[in-house]
Amino acid sequence: MSITSIQNNLSLESKRIFGLLLRKGAMTKGQLAKLSGLKLTTLNRVILPLEELGLIIRTMVGKSTGGRKPVLYDVNPQKYNVVGIDISRLYTQVVLTNLKMETLAKFRFDMNQDSSPETTLKRIQDWLETVLKKTGDGCVLGIGIGTVGPLDRRDGIILNPENFEAKGWENIPLKSIFEEKTGLPVIMDNGANAAVLAETYYGIGKGIRNVMYLNCGVGIRTGVISSGAFVRTVNDTEDTFAHMVIDVNGKACRCGNRGCLERYASIHSIREEFLVAIKKGKTSRIKKPVEQISYLDICQAAEENDPLARQVMQKAAMLMGTGLANFIQLLNPGIVVLSGPLIYASKLFYEECVQTAMKKSYGNKGNHIAFSRGGSFVENAISIGSAALVVERYLLKKAMGSNE
Ligand SMILES: [Zn+2]
Asked: pTM here?
């Protein structure tokens, strides 16, 4: 069954009950009635289409408090699946998940100077074709794409992102390309929004009101859910935080300003800072020709106490932590998830950044905020969150607040 016909068969109340089960887990009819405020007779009517469509099932029997054991209702993990695609600058990852956002299959490859839109999309489509053949008609409800902004979110077009190694990533109508190839509905958002969605409702941010997600890599990508809604930016860019000015007379940035955070705390900036120091005569234990030194070499050397690498990483992390403290003050998150290649490659960067952010947070010094390195989904957050976009848009929209 297609997602639009499922959608047409569901009232707002049915969607709300489905959303409660999805977000809070299996529960009895009594618990559902209490949470939703619906009378049992209404609840029976609202549950019926969800069961008929196979969206929910009666599952294992709950704990008995004497007498007959109550039945638990749960989201059906077996009937329908969703596809999530994460197109980033360093890699692309595609997942097939069930409605509980559990991964059933995964495909990942690196992005390099040969990863033009044509070859990248061809690889994704080939994998999808095999997967969709296996799962059969009507089981996959839709495709979510999380990618690098700026975007035209409504029409599903990548506009003019910076720093893809391969040429040609401008004005790519991803939505219509995938819709045409698969016949499935496609929804697109920036990758950081997809990731914060995954962590908020299916991961470490469950039950926390404001969740902040930062992905540190080629750029600094941020996604925030505040009181149940995305904090959106113009053109759905995800790099507004990256262009927070932290030094009024600082280095010139590609955006036209000076002293943007990205010029100090991204992969390229850290490498640049390190290479400049070497060229000025500073020494390091990294035994490679200067031009071959990668950010990974610098991260590793810093972990191994190379003084120059440590100094460069610490400075970058201190500046990142300062920007983060500003961001925290504005948006008041309950949890901050730090993710991305730089965070995974350097424990030092992560720890220094968190310490600075806490120290510089106004008020109670950030003590009320939890920090997480990688969240629940680590490098899978964007792809799983992209799959979650489909469920949010088609099965929960309006019923569970304003996320879409
Ligand atoms: Zn800038």
From this structure: 0.93
